[in-house]
Amino acid sequence: MKPGRRALGVAESYRGTDGTATSTLAGAVVRVDRAVGDFSFARCAVGGRDSTDAIEALWKRLDRPDVRYLFLAGVAPAWYNVVDLGRLHRVIERPVLSVSFEDSGGLESGIAEAFDGDERRLRLEAYGALPGRHRLEIDGEPLFVRSIGLDRTRADAVVEAYTQKRRPEPLRVAKRLARRVDAARREGTIAPDDRRD
């Protein structure tokens, strides 16, 4: 892969699940040679259903047609705020790759325990519509990948190209940014409604 090929990684940080909390989403544009080129931020409701809207807004705010891939840290940020990977793929017209780092039996039971009625049903439907997840080992360490817009072989090659020490670099950088900005918001250094990026 060419060293200048860019990906956007999106990760989150939040504390609390009291129904009023918001999660900070950070997006980092990172080249395959690990150079960071840009970043942006958004927020979504903890326990809400607006993560897809927030990621779409973050993507559009960046306005980076040179970005070739979208990496997401998991599929259910902010306490089961399930992302619609198919919709993101249609809107941004780029491959979307969700990467998680732990094996699990899925999120259905967690969603069923946390929500009732339509809130449960809508989340379970969104989760059930996601593409299947497969295991990828890089340097003996497992990752779990879902992808839309790339077949499995190509998706694995893209994830591996951006990964160093088990973490795809766009997600590692995005996670650090999200934690720093979320901490600044909680400390009052950044106003809660400050949407600068």
From TrEMBL:
It comes from the Archaea. It comes from Natronomonas aquatica. Belongs to the UPF0215 family. This is UPF0215 protein KM295_14055. Signal peptide: none annotated. Gene3D superfamilies: archaeoglobus fulgidus dsm 4304 superfamily (3.30.2170.10).
